[in-house]
């Protein structure tokens, strides 16, 4: 899937000016097509997984020194359309999915397979098939973010229908996931979206969430679905109001 500058700006919650500056500085992967910049979904996804996230802005930045332009530079029309469709997207996806606190597996492959055996009916796909797809993605690049959070997902699998599904897993013990910060994983968000853009949007939102101290404290307590959804709804309402 080819993305335009406007698409990437909306997905990452930054201005188009910021994207153009990152392009000029070589800080974001892109290619030229008919004299215009285009972005590969897979390259942007990998870039998001490997980038540092600024706690105070909630936006993807190539380094801690990078500063975002003021929010007023983002087009108001774009912000309004996102607010209605994306503000509570993570809440809806988790509501459609599940929160599992009783997964017993203590290593990556076994955890993936145990989780998929529990939720494959929701995804309407054979658990062996979806497990293999998830593990294939992990072999290409581990999906650990930072601070003990991972977002397992596949390269190409797209859900049928208009809904996204996020399955949250709090394993019995932290699991070695090969994360860039080398920290074991205590919270996993298995991400399944119904379109490439919604997948990238949810991935960006989860990466933002993984930088929040308040959220990390909650995840360590292994909340049930009701408690987690209440927190996510409140957090998304605050993020959307910025």
Compile the SSE list and pairings.
Layout: E1 2-3, H1 5-12, H2 16-24, E2 31-33, E3 36-40, H3 41-50, E4 52-53, E5 60-61, H4 76-86, H5 89-96, E6 98-100, H6 108-123, H7 127-140, E7 149-150, E8 165-169, E9 187-192, H8 196-209, H9 213-220, H10 225-240
Parallel strand pairs: 6-8, 7-9
Antiparallel strand pairs: 1-3, 2-3, 4-5, 8-9
Q: Give the C-alpha Rg.
A: 17 Å
Would you tell me the structural class of the helices and strands? alpha/beta
Order of helices and strands: EHHEEHEEHHEHHEEEHHH
How many beta-strand elements? 9
CATH level-two architecture of the largest domain: 3-Layer(aba) Sandwich
Helix content: 40-55%
User: Strands of the biggest beta sheet: in what spatial order?
Assistant: 6-8-9-7
CATH topology of the largest domain: Mannitol-specific EII, Chain A
> What amount of the residues lies in strands?
5-15%
Main beta-sheet strand count, sense and barrel state = 4 strands, mixed
CATH class of the largest domain: Alpha Beta
Average of per-residue pLDDT values: 83
Number of helices: 10
CATH superfamily caption of the largest domain: Mannitol-specific EII, Chain A
Domain count, please report it: 2
- The end-to-end distance, rounded to whole angstroms, is 29 Å
Uncertain runs are 52-59, 61-82
Global outline: globular
InterPro entries: DNA-bd_dom_put_sf (IPR009061), HTH_17 (IPR041657), PTrfase/Anion_transptr (IPR016152), PTS_EIIA_type-2_dom (IPR002178), PTS_SugarTrans_NitroReg (IPR051541), SinI_DNA-bd (IPR010093)
Organism: Candidatus Neptunichlamydia vexilliferae
Family: Belongs to the EUO family.
Protein name: PTS EIIA type-2 domain-containing protein
């Amino acid at each position: 899937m080819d993305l335009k500058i406007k698409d990437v700006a909306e997905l990452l919650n930054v201005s188009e000016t910021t994207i153009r500056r990152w392009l000029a500085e070589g800080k974001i992967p892109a290619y030229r097509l008919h004299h215009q910049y285009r972005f590969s979904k897979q390259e942007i996804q990998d870039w998001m997984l490997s980038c540092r996230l600024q706690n105070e802005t909630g936006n993807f930045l190539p380094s801690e020194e990078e500063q975002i332009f003021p929010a007023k530079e983002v087009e108001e029309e774009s912000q309004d359309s996102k607010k209605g469709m994306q503000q509570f997207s993570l809440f809806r996806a988790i509501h459609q999915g599940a929160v599992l606190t009783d997964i017993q597996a203590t290593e990556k492959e076994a955890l993936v397979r145990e989780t998929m055996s529990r939720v494959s009916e929701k995804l309407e796909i054979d658990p062996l098939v979806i497990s293999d797809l998830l593990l294939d993605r992990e072999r290409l690049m581990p999906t650990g973010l930072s601070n003990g959070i991972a977002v397992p997902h596949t390269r190409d699998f797209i859900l049928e229908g208009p809904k996204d599904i996020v399955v949250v897993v709090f394993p019995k013990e932290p699991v070695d996931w090969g994360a860039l910060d080398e920290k074991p994983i205590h919270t996993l968000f298995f991400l399944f979206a119904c379109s490439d853009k919604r997948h990238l949007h949810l991935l960006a939102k989860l990466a933002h969430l993984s930088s929040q101290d308040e959220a990390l404290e909650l995840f360590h307590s292994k909340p049930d679905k009701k408690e987690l959804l209440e927190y996510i709804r409140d957090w998304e309402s605050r993020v959307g109001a910025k």
